[in-house]
Specification:
It is a single chain. By secondary structure, the protein is mostly helical. The chain has one domain: Amino acid/polyamine transporter I, CATH 1.20.1740.10. 78% of the residues lie in helices and 0% in strands. It contains 17 helices and no strands. The mean pLDDT is 86.
Amino acid sequence: MNKQKRIDSITVGFALFAMFFGAGNLIIPPILGLTAGSAWFPSVLGFAITSVCATFLGIIAVVVSGDNFNDVGNRINPIFSIIITAICMLSIGPLVAIPRTAATTFEIGVQPLFNHTSPILSSILFFSITLILSLSSTRVVDIIGKILTPLLLIILIALIILGVIHPLNIDLVQLKSNSDAFVSGFREGYQTMDLLASFVMAGIIISAIKAKGHQQEKDKKQVTITAALIAMSCLILIYGGLVFLGATSGYTANDSIQRTELLLHISKGVLGKNGTLLLSVCVALACLTTAIALTSAVSDYFNKLSNNLLSYRLLVIVICVFSGFLAVYGVDNIIDYAYPFLAVIYPIAVSMAFFIVFFGKFIKDKRPYIAVVSITFIIALIGLFEYLDIARDYMQLILKSIPLNRYEIPWFLPSLLGFIIVWLLVRKNNSNLN
């Protein structure tokens, strides 16, 4: 790799890290460490698989398929491509990610400073600003984002380094077995939604890389993959540090602890009152810029999908009103209600990315990939029914009979088997025709 490629890879890598590093992601890792205790490292491993490794696969799936997520979906079916892209947009938009930014802002940036402020009032103010800036052409968001991201990272790195050097508590108790801690981390990784975001972000960074002059397929792939590795390495280090801080926080694990409350406790203990105040303000403003960016992206997507039938302005208004309604329920409630939905869509996205990355170059026929998505969807639905207590005993019996269910990937071996069987049948059929 020449000097220019290295420079561009580093530049795009840190830009990609900033795209994925949503302020909302700060609140998830510490609770993993708190509930795992001395088994915090297996939690990091599980969390890294679904939040980081799967995200990397998503980026690679796009780059080996073309230039954007539509190229990935088209490997299976054009209609499916539209459906899965729309679902991803809704997930990183008004269904989960956007309202979570407002809820995080209230619990970390508003409530600690103004104790008696209503979450409803906070949500109205938050989305009024989001609405105005999403509709305008102002560069305020870009300017704030360029200042806030580095500042937030500096504070966060200081928090982690100081927390590791001077932990708040060193007497750790193993609260979960290593396997249970791993599974908890694996499951919580869904909540970052970084895999779903990766399908969208990959298209953005590929366009940026091509604009830098890397037009040839080999160069495009090389710079994209290197940039993705840089971004994912940074994410693993940050997440690992936050999980460790949660484990050494000195808090007692119980169901009443809020994720934002734990983060504030850690920052106050490590950075002091002023450090916590600065962290709160940065997180709140970072959440605002994230909400504006997501609102604009989702509105633009559905505006183009509807061929301008749904105006951009109308979509922005609807997204802000809907997200504002959900935001008042709080971060923990948003995470809880999102899990069943993500437990279905995430395995489908992971299976798509995995099989396209590892087999896409050699197997072009759509049918094996359709088999993978279909099998994964069925098994994910069985898991959802069990979670929702629908024919629970029967669903549990089915899941327990599937290998790797213990590790939250019951879909993997059946989908792999289905992929191989369909591919062999396709090959046999093609041989007979020839």
